[in-house]
Design goal:
heterodimer; A: alpha+beta; OB fold (Dihydrolipoamide Acetyltransferase, E2P); five-stranded mixed beta barrel; 5 helices; 6 strands; 27% strand; flat; B: mainly alpha; 8 helices
């Protein structure tokens, strides 16, 4: 019985130590693990103009302005507290919609506008048929993506 | 514990497995068949994703199973290390390739979904990266378990790797909550009601139950084969040993 007890204690202690070590490492690298920053995080610590990073948030309703050449587009991205202007030239993904989540990669220019060279749509965790979505919107019980923010 | 020990006898396990295995196989075929029919024939397209949502019916269950297989593997590895029971190691070895396949299916279907929805096949966000690490852990475990001539040594080394890698499981599960990721957070296993409409949840759960039965059916076959392989190896070893002594005496 004794060696079994000892091996059990060894495995349990080993797993605990490992768990703590992993947690510390992950906490230390948090900045590089996050896939994007929210507009508020960008506003709080202005990244230098030449640094590439990603921002994420919700595309503000009625903020999308398409340019004359059909591929350039401007829109605003918000996390409800702060908002960033984004300029992008290229093809937008299918799920790109006003009021939906988006992740853009690029740089801040001198006047605080985000010049994106890649735009990804971010899907939220709600799945439902179109009829249900319409019915919810009609009855005013819609709690879809725009408010969710993630 | 004494109850568990009764099933830990390999002979008893094989007898039990032989009885259950066909049932799990048929249940898997039935449930996966039903899940595919409901998922591809009867469930509605999503209000945002359209028909692409159907990828989820394969992607999400395989992701769950990828993690579940690893959990089974890690628990058996720990049991094998602590109680030195060979059956535990055989089960862990049996689960590894099945889990690796589920992980590959999960990654492949995820990429197929990511291209049309996100606009990109792959993103180095916390969820995707931690699942890729899970695949490498499986592959490393399989390689290590087969790298030794000495079975006991291979069992022990691979069990330690399986336990170390278990740290990755909570990271995968909670990555979408702890960090900003491109991957969406959990829809089914979240606090409160699932964020999936019942017409889509039904095929998802059917497939999940089917994948679980498939895992059980495959695991029983692999454990049986694993036990036979070990017995064969032991017999060969014994014969080689005896044969070596014979030729030794013949030469002298």
């Amino acid at each position: 019985m004794r060696p079994k007890r000892r091996r059990l204690a060894f495995v349990v202690c080993g797993m605990l130590t490992l768990g703590v070590a992993a947690a510390l490492v992950l906490a230390a690298f948090e900045d590089s693990i996050v896939y994007f920053y929210s507009p508020t995080e960008v506003a709080e610590n202005k990244p230098p103009p030449d640094r590439r990073f990603r921002i994420g948030g919700i595309v503000v309703k009625d903020s999308v302005i398409r340019g004359a050449d059909a591929t350039s587009v401007r829109f605003r991205v918000t996390d409800t507290a702060n908002t960033i202007d984004v300029a992008y030239t290229g093809v937008l993904p299918d799920l790109f919609r006003e009021g939906q989540g988006v992740v853009a990669e690029g740089r801040l220019d001198a006047d605080g506008r985000f010049r994106a060279d890649e735009v990804l749509a971010k899907h939220d965790e709600t799945y439902m048929p179109k009829e249900v979505a319409d019915a919810l919107k009609e009855s005013g019980r819609w709690r879809g993506a725009p408010e969710g923010g993630r | 514990m004494s109850r568990l020990h009764r099933f830990a006898s390999p002979a008893r396990f094989v007898r039990l497995a032989d009885r259950i295995q066909p049932w799990t196989g048929w249940a898997a075929a039935l449930l996966i068949g039903a899940g595919l029919v409901v998922g591809f024939g009867f469930s509605p397209p999503d209000y945002q994703q359209g028909d692409t949502v159907r990828i989820m019916y394969v992607h999400v269950p395989s992701a769950w199973m990828a993690m579940f297989c690893y959990a089974v593997m890690a628990v058996c590895a720990a049991a094998g290390l602590i109680w030195r029971h060979p059956l535990a190691h055989v089960i862990a070895h049996g689960a590894a390739p099945i889990g690796a396949c589920f992980t590959i299916v999960c990654l492949a279907t995820g990429m197929l979904w990511g291209k049309p929805m996100w606009g990109r096949w792959w993103a180095w966000d916390a969820r995707l990266t931690s699942v890729l690490i899970l695949l490498f852990l499986y592959l490393g475990y399989i390689a290590l378990a087969n790298a030794f001539d000495n079975t006991a040594r291979g069992d022990r080394s691979s069990a330690i790797l399986a336990l170390v890698g278990a740290v990755n499981l909570p990271v995968i599960k909670f990555s979408v909550d702890w960090w900003n990721t491109l991957h969406q957070p959990a829809s089914v296993t979240r606090i409160g009601a699932p964020a999936i409409h019942s017409s889509m949840l039904t095929p998802l759960l059917l497939m999940a139950a089917g994948f679980m039965c498939l895992f059980a059916a495959l695991l029983f076959v692999r454990v049986r084969a694993g036990l036979l392989e070990r017995r064969l190896r032991a017999l060969r070893h014994a014969r080689a040993h005896a044969g070596g002594m014979d030729t030794g005496t013949g030469l002298s």
